[in-house]
Amino acid sequence: YSSYAWTGKPITPVPTVTYGGLTLKEGTDYKIKKPSGRKNAGIYTVMIEMKGDYTGKYRKTFQIIPKGTAISGVKAKKKAFSVSWKKQAKQTSGYQIQYAVDAKFKKSVVAKNVNNTKKVKLDVSKLKAKKKYYIRVRTYKTVKVNGKSKKIYSGWSKVKAVTTKK
Fold it and tell me: For 59-68, b where at least 16 C-beta lie within 10 A, e where not — what string?
């Protein structure tokens, strides 16, 4: 797999190395160099170094994604709504909330980032009255990759619907 959910324990992917239809054996045909710090959400590179009858070095990356969250409540307001979610502060930099006018999130999708893990509520205003909106939330962690910041996202929560008031 290329993605693993954060558990708080070191994650060590076990790759299957094949050549010409044969499954090679670790220790005999290749060795694996595991990156350090595989306990935290981030992007890691595993080095596979061939040996014996085989030659070459290969890099494979995987990521540990932050633990997700769930919507705990949605409240309709006049041309607005408020959404709250469960706090997930460990290995998380913030939350991303998405809302749309269709359940498949294909049309009129708006994303809002909350860059504070202590905040668990967002008010969204300036919407249309008596309109149904679909809402979902996920966590993210900002990590450094080659000196650049990159966001790693959890999976989306279950979708909740709300109809704004007149």
Answer: eeebbbbbbb
pLDDT at 1: 61
Task: Name residue 143's beta-bridge partners.
Answer: 150
Residue 156 CA, distance from chain mean position: 8
Task: Please name which of 143, 159, 153, 142 lies closest in space to residue 5, comparing C-alpha atoms.
Answer: 153
Question: Which of 87, 88, 86, 112 lies closest to 99, judged by CA?
Answer: 112
Q: Give the residue from 119, 53, 110 showing the smallest Cα distance to 86.
A: 119
State pLDDT tens for residues 6-42.
Answer: 988 999 888 889 888 899 999 999 999 988 888 999 9
Q: What is the pTM of this model?
A: 0.85
pLDDT digits (tens, 9 = 90+) for 113-162: 999 999 999 999 999 999 999 999 999 999 988 889 999 999 999 999 99
| Cα dihedral sign, 7-10-13-14 | negative
Give which of 92, 91, 131, 130 is closest to 110, Cα–Cα.
Answer: 131
Task: Please name the amino acid found at residue 151.
Answer: K
Distance, CA of 24 to CA of 28 (rounded, Å): 8
Nearest to 52 by CA among 78, 81, 31: 31
R_g over Cα of the chain: 21
What the block records as the tokens of 71 is 């919507």
